[in-house]
Fold this sequence. Notes:
The structure holds two protein chains of two kinds.
Chain A: H1 11-22, H2 43-53, H3 59-74, H4 81-106, H5 114-133, H6 139-166, H7 172-190, H8 201-208, H9 211-214, E1 216-217, H10 218-236, H11 238-248, H12 250-255, H13 260-286, H14 297-307, H15 319-338, H16 344-369
Chain B: E1 25-34, E2 37-47, E3 52-57, H1 63-70, E4 78-83, E5 86-88, H2 93-98, E6 101-104, H3 116-120, H4 130-134, H5 140-153, H6 170-184, E7 188-192, H7 200-215, E8 220-223, H8 227-233, E9 236-241, E10 244-250, H9 256-264, H10 266-273
Helix pairs in contact in B: 6-7
Bound molecules: adenosine-5'-triphosphate and magnesium ion (MG).
Amino acid sequence: MTTDQTPETRPEDQAMEDIGALLGETNDDWSDADDDAERTPSNLMRLLGFLAKGEGGWWTFGVLVFICVVFGVLAPDFFSRSNWVATSEYAVEYLMLALGETFVIATGGIDLACGAVLGFSGMLSAVVMQSMLGGHADTLLITVVGVVVAIATGAAIGLFNGFMVTKAKLTPFIVTLGTLGMATGGTYLLDNGNQVSNLPPQIATLGTTIWLSGWLPVIFVVAAVFAIGASVLLSRTRFGMWTYVVGSNPLAARRAGLKVDRHLIKVYMLSGMLAGVAGVLVTARFTIASPIAGANDELDAIAAVVIGGASLFGGNGTILGTTIGVFVVSILVTGLVLVNVQPFWQQVAVGAVLLSAVMLDQLRRRLAVA
Amino acid sequence: MSENRSQANLASPDASGVGADPPIVELRNVGKHYGRITALKHVSFSIRKGEVVALVGDNGAGKSTLVNIIAGALAPSVGELLIEGEPMRFRSANEARQMGIETVYQDLALANDVPAWANLFLGREIKRRGPLGALGWLDKKAMIGAADEALGRTKIRIKSIEAKCGALSGGQRQAVAVARAINWGSRMLLMDEPTAALGVEQQHQVGVLIQAVREEGTPVLLVSHNLPQVMAVSDRILVLFHGHLVKELATARTTTDEVIKWITGAGLVRQAAS
Ligand SMILES: Nc1ncnc2c1ncn2[C@@H]1O[C@H](COP(=O)(O)OP(=O)(O)OP(=O)(O)O)[C@@H](O)[C@H]1O
Ligand SMILES: [Mg+2]
């Protein structure tokens, strides 16, 4: 594994590049590594070496391939159109939440409220849309208002979270645990715990349209566009750079003139807004707004981020890793359904993968220190 | 990005007429308490253009506290800080930085999870031109190029400018912090033990850099436990003892032994006895 390295190139960087190429992405890391085409030992060997090292959480890509193969063998339907559609639709809400969670975790924080914010903003926007349907407004306009309400609600709760974390100096865990409770209760209060089903037709269209002759759900396209945007934001812009710096060394960030508090507030707002969008997408998917939407989703979202290679200590994590993590979680759930495993085992499986991810992260840390 | 470069500051016509200008930095009766602990008491001194002033003292003498006050990272409890004759109350390190006062902190103030080049540009990132830049899109190429050049100018070598800082050795990390300060410090350079983790060759290199900075007229305040280096590069030596500025020595007219006496407090005892 170590014989093919020149001292100038870190093996991890090289492998990162290779995997990036395999996935058809430019590398998501900060370093724009040069391509050295003259050294081309087997890509597979590099991949294996890389996965064994576990750098950057890329072992999750191996896990993803592995569970696809296992389910592919066990369930003949696994590679079918219907399972892909079910999986990608299932992944939408976790992806949306995990995108924001990646930013929050990169700052060294955590957002436990995102699932509840999804529920609350989805329900509030549904209630608003339903009440507007009684008037004479155009249904498209009503839909737009609904989307704006959801995003604004998420932003407001995110603002509150960020404010409590930075100005009241409470830990993110406590703050977002508090807003988790408040948003969950609020969701039930909005419509006395009832579902809202009287929605503009555009919502149903958004949730049920599947492009590419039934292969590509529109809500998944929406989530994918957000994922690409989040990836650019985190890996290519100053906002992303500051996110890592704030998580890595807040004191150094402050001394360098970064407005640390303001940046943290923005990050929590971003997470809230993405949860707001997720609220609309979930409403669209079921063409109904339910008060249980989003409940406990934050756990799977955090699991996906950690499985994707982020450390809860902050300073790292990538959107590509998170996206792979979301698919690991989603495929585990839909795959287990296909092989007729009792649904309760799904949570057990997700938990086991999460624990392995964290253990691997610890191991990597210890190896790095030694 | 170039407006703060060290060369830019030398436009003032009377660079030679040292006596006429107010000192670059002046402290008047500065004191600092941490709760009931007094870290500094009645400290007064000034630093002029082109001077290298060494600040020495035992562990806990208050050196870092003093540096952090000038750097804007700490507010003095009492006393006055004047920059070129103007009383200043820095509310943040960034305010001092914007005035061209650059610091190598004892803890280096590096973000270990981002590459070395990004640390050189912390808070001063170069964005792309055009609409993408307005959206915050970074010009990595420009920064990597400029960082490479800055490190090249300082002749400090690190493994790879694209490696994350956390993957560098202690000495290399220190080199990044020194290169950053030298690259941006135009009015004054504060260095809190910049060579503690460096090898012999790189220590020497930092000494050479300090001389070069001084020749451009930028004063340097150097905190160091390395007395041979202090004797080699400084013009004056300030000795702190339990938060008091107990002695000011002209380097040319003192010896390492005398400096040690003042650091350990033996000088004070003798003074009291006579
Ligand atoms: N944040 C703080 N809270 C309380 N006391 C502090 C704090 N920072 C420093 N002190 C105290 O102030 C005194 C001076 O500390 P300072 O860090 O300035 O010393 P120093 O001369 O830089 O020492 P060293 O050579 O070890 O770096 C010490 O007694 C220290 O314990
Ligand atoms: Mg110190």
